[in-house]
Amino acid sequence: MKKIVGALALVAALSLTACGGGSPSAGVTDDAAPSASGGAAGLEQIEVGVIPIVDVAPIYLGVKEGIFEKEGLDVKLTLAQGGAAIVPAITSKQMDFGFSNVTSMIVARSKGLPLKMVAPGGSSTGNTKEDFAAVMTKPDSDIKEIKDLVGKKVAVNTLNNISDSTISEAVKKAGGDYTKIQFVEMPFPDMAAQLDAGNVDAIAAVEPFVTIAGADGNVPVFSNYAEPVKDLTVAVYFTSDDYIKENPETAAKFTRAMTASQKFADENPEKAKAVLPDYTTLKPEVIEKLTMPRFLTEVNEASIQEVAAISLDRGLIDKVPDMAALLPTK
């Protein structure tokens, strides 16, 4: 496989599980993420669990721009390996807020975990040809359209989560038998090499690995975040029912600040990109080419409901949980 300058350094900080649920035993580290103000006098300290991917740029930008400070919050951002590491930290009150993809939230709530979304994270651009996630393959592959994935091996970072469920739904809607897709679990940084070696036929990548794989000559088939679910909210910030009950004002402040940070990042995409080196080892030449998520100010509830229906159909959950309890309070 062709080598990309700086790729090894880039993936070092991004080899942690990204949009998937992560490992249930994944740990949390608090020595790699900056604090908002170092415990400035008069500010309430909160801890937020995040993962080192482009999706969380708005919260880093919001801290940097003083948006959280204006709400009276001193934010400590703690890096974790994935949503599955953050969830127990929230339920055990080790952290106050966390970040995770929406499928993991639905699965967790269906299992009785009292989690609630409070603000949106990254959302699809809605453009199937230019999104921050893409199903990619070799340029000489016989996979030219969605239905061609039937009977193929497709790499996903986590089985039974948002990537394989959206891909299978896209194939279903295209008229293909999604049960004949063989999903193979592997970390994002390993996917391009496994594709090059012929061990898989396609990969479900997210940025920056879409850009890396593209630089190696691989081509996108479609974005499984832009299709099949319209205007998909991919990830959210969340907390527990107990935290909201015990700290309603703090929860409201965080929601306002996070929403304002999302808006600022969406309106200032170059500033959102500029903050990426603060918590990743992405090289400038890679950052320049990245397709960023949309950073919207509201969770698209219709898309979450559709993800829940897909999760039920794929057997990820036994029944759809109380969505009113899970979705943000209006």
UniProtKB/TrEMBL annotation:
It holds the Pfam family NMT1. Keywords: Signal. InterPro entries: Solute-binding_3/MltF_N, SsuA/THI5. SUPFAM superfamilies: Periplasmic binding protein-like II. Coiled coil: none annotated. It is found in: Periplasm. Residues 45-268 form the Solute-binding protein family 3/N-terminal domain. One of its GO terms (cellular component) is periplasmic space. Residues 1-18 form the signal peptide. Belongs to the bacterial solute-binding protein SsuA/TauA family. This is NitT/TauT family transport system substrate-binding protein.
